[in-house]
Amino acid sequence: MTNNDILKRLRYTFDYSTNKMMAISHLAEPNDKKDFLDAWLLKEEEAGYAECSDRDLAVFLNGLIIEKRGKKEGPQPVPEEKLTNNSIFMKIRIALNFTAEDVLAVLSLADY
Known about the structure:
Number of helices: 6
Low-confidence stretches: none
Structural class: mainly alpha
């Protein structure tokens, strides 16, 4: 699964508009990447498609954590330059405030 796929799935899971996704990203790092976000959400075969970098996905996921849980005191996390599947999963788990039991319940709903 690519970073673009993850962004798309999160968008549809939470029914976020492009503007909402930009606002979430801005929570972690002010930027002006609306054109890039539009390109990341296109299908690979569509003109204008661009790959989302690990760092840009990390910025969005850090913003999602702030959106769902609130901004923590002190210095904010620096977006990672390289993400692993585990670090992506952990950021989503943190954003949703899932415990290990919650994760197991979700996986069982998906027959996993």
